[in-house]
Queue: 2 jobs
Job 1
Amino acid sequence: MRAVLLSIALIAELAVSARAETPREVPVDLELILAIDVSRSMTPRELEIQRRGYAEALLSADVVQAIGLGPHGQIALMYVEWAGPYSQRLIIDWTMVRTRADAEAFAARLTAEFTDALRRTSISGVIDYAIPRFDGNGFAGLRQVIDISGDGPNNQGRPVLAARADAEARGITINGLPLMTREGMGAQWHLDDLDQYYRHCVITGQTSFVIPVLEWKDFPAAVRQKLVLELVDRQPPDHVPVRRAEGYDCLIGEKIWDQFIGDWN
């Protein structure tokens, strides 16, 4: 009997030890990946505008207040820049943001330095990069969102619909911030209806949405609005639901590249 009791005690001790060694996931209201386009079509000024725009939005009273409205009052953020299918640059790894001081620290890291552009545009590539980043990140979010900004359609890597389907299967929301400005290089790659491309081909999730940016002066306000909506899990008042049977050509970016260059892969 004594041997049995010692065995039970040993098993219990090992179980407690195992639990102590297992990292505990921190509960948060939202796990949010900010995925920012830095393809070669963007000018250095545009790249800086994006970093500063996100920093300014994070420091706004609206965003800080919205972070505190959730049941946990805290979120987890990651900031990554992207271009081609294998061109993702992690700027800030998963970071918990709870207070204004946390937001200030995150913003300061964003604007500490500015990096160069990368080649091509692969929205599918950044989705493929982002999905596994939710696994084992140390946080347990009530929601998981990939927030993609970009100035053109997918033109390299696998079709964007295939990548989006993988996000759908995981219950991950994708929101879009199409940059419909005309400052950068390569006007032949631009889509006049880039906002529609994002609506039909990129975003997914019951509360997903698109906020287009027509001029760079509107960028900080658009980012602020987008972050607040993501934090409170709402859509813009003027949101128009997408009926996917409408038949938008989600390979338009690849076809444009093929027209001017050749084999897009």
Note: The longest helix spans residues 2-21.
Job 2
Amino acid sequence: MSDLRDVIPGYREAVEQEASEREGCFLNVFIYEVCGCEVGPLTLGKMILLKQWGSAFFTGGMIQPGDVLMLMWVCSPDFIPNGLRAWWRRRRLRRMLRRMKYLNAVAECETFIEGQFFDLPGNDAAPWTGPQDESFVARAVDTFAEAYGWTYQETLKVPLPVAGQLLRRLVKRRDPNSVFINRSDKVRSEYLRNMHGGQAGGNN
């Protein structure tokens, strides 16, 4: 049986890139480029901070230029919560972002956030779903405390791509037959859909 990675154009590259990013996110030095700026991964703690600060990327509503700046600042390797140095570094970042078109910046931010969340399992076995009388953060902290003995401070520092992979492993332990979606699956799905469409067109 043929390996689809050798049959579908771009599929092998997509799988290898996905594997590289999954490995790389476990490194403290792993950096992304978003809006021409270097940013680190989202963590549970940074996501909570952005929600508390009212970032429209996480609370909903119309995304403003300030939301882009806020995301880039919180995820910046230079991030400092407050003080004169924080003000100066935010100012420098704001100048960099002014060079970008607003819609392009929003699109890049949304792509970055989507990638950070992609590996998080969305089924009932994951702590991201559950009763409304407790936060999903509490469920995540409890899950990792039970599995790995982490403190809540340690859990809040975990990059979301790492948390997603570990949660997938925990779900797999409970149900080895669990199936997850990979970003590289999009390349395969589009190829098969186009091939099917071409066959259907030929039969008309």
Note: The radius of gyration is 20 Å.
